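User: Can you recover a sequence for this backbone? Please restate the input before giving your answer.

Assistant: Of course. Working from this structure:
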């Protein structure tokens, strides 16, 4: 049965530093913007899914709602795709008529870090592995160190990826410069990328996402209800997820390709599409090497081919498959996948700041992690 869930409203704050404002404050601001975008009021919401706020109860109280369905998902960014899929299921099952997904993050102004012995975030172990005490003696004190190990193995197998990582970092910064809400607005030159300091070799400063403050929200409803609303509905055409949790204390030898491929193929089966139908992709770029692992997991290119693919094809708006057109986690701001999904919706609606030469009819959000996920977006009514 074709998917009928649609995104009818999106909202976000600017990303960067918001001193004196809590994650709850930022999430509520984003929800209010999404409601205006959707043409709805808070009392129209009967579903609530939250992440990284103090509690779903607090957000509901501040919005003045008592939803039929409420849930707070775990803080890790790998939960973003599953949360959106859950909202789609809820409206398609008739459990809710309008679900708001609310995300807030005050890590930057709160001085939080996502790794190291002084980590203060609730996702300090977001990383990877269930026994961090076994990792610290070997320097694995952060998710970045985990990805550096993966990159070292990848380069040992397939050759240097440095030119591709440079292309990714520089291009995503170019995208962010055109995005007034992005945290980074200063150009990044190839020379500056190459001269930046190593954090965990072979990864450099600009291979890392940024810890930022911000809020993001999406309103999900049915296509039938959206027809009576003023906004442009974007269909959640397909979704899929697949975990790779067994032995996740160690970097996976396949770079999560198998799990990512399963998630991506499930989403395309639901949508009746293939990877060749994609016009734009939003890839979870917590670290630049993950773009390479995800491209291969999606089936855009074969194992070990992503670095050459990025250099040869490019990832800008004039490329065959533009990536992360608002700047991504590397330059727009680390909103753990939420801002990437909002940008996917904007691309389909045609109101994104940086638009490819051809209209974006089908856009993918893809996250490659211990829980890999894909969400496919297309204009409502276009169908299979």
């Amino acid at each position: 049965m074709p998917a009928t869930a649609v995104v009818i409203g999106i909202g976000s704050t600017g990303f960067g530093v918001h001193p004196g404002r809590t994650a709850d404050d930022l999430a509520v601001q984003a929800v209010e913007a999404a409601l205006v975008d959707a043409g709805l009021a808070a009392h129209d919401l009967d579903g609530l899914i939250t992440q990284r706020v103090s509690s779903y109860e607090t957000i509901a109280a501040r919005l003045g709602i008592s939803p039929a369905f409420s849930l707070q998902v775990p803080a890790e960014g790998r939960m973003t795709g599953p949360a959106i899929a859950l909202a789609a299921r809820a409206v398609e099952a008739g459990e809710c008529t309008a679900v708001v997904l609310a995300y807030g993050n005050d890590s930057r102004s709160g001085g939080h870090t996502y790794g190291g012995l002084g980590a203060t975030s609730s996702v300090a172990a977001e990383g990877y592995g269930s026994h961090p005490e076994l990792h610290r003696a070997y320097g694995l004190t952060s998710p970045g160190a985990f990805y550096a190990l993966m990159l070292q193995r990848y380069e040992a197998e397939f050759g240097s990826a440095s030119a591709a990582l440079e292309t990714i970092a520089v291009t995503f910064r170019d995208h962010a410069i055109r995005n007034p809400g992005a945290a980074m607005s200063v150009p990044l030159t190839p020379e500056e990328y190459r001269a930046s300091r190593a954090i965990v070799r072979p990864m450099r400063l600009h291979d890392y996402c940024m810890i930022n403050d911000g809020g993001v929200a999406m309103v999900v409803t049915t296509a039938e209800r959206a027809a009576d609303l003023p906004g442009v509905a974007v269909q959640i055409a397909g979704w899929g997820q697949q975990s790779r949790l067994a032995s996740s204390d160690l970097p996976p030898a396949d770079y999560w390709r198998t799990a990512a491929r399963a998630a991506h193929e499930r989403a395309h089966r639901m949508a009746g599409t293939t990877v060749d139908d994609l016009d734009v992709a939003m890839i979870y770029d917590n670290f630049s090497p993950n773009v390479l692992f995800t491209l291969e997991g999606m089936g855009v290119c074969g194992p070990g081919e992503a670095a050459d693919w990025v250099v040869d094809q490019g990832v800008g708006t004039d490329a065959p498959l533009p990536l992360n057109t608002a700047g991504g986690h590397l330059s727009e701001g680390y909103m753990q996948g939420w801002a990437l999904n909002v940008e996917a919706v904007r691309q389909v609606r045609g109101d994104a700041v940086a638009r490819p030469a051809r209209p974006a009819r089908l856009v993918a959000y893809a996250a490659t992690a211990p829980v890999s996920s894909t969400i496919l977006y297309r204009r409502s009514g276009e169908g299979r």
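That completes the design. The chain has one domain: 5-109+211-379.
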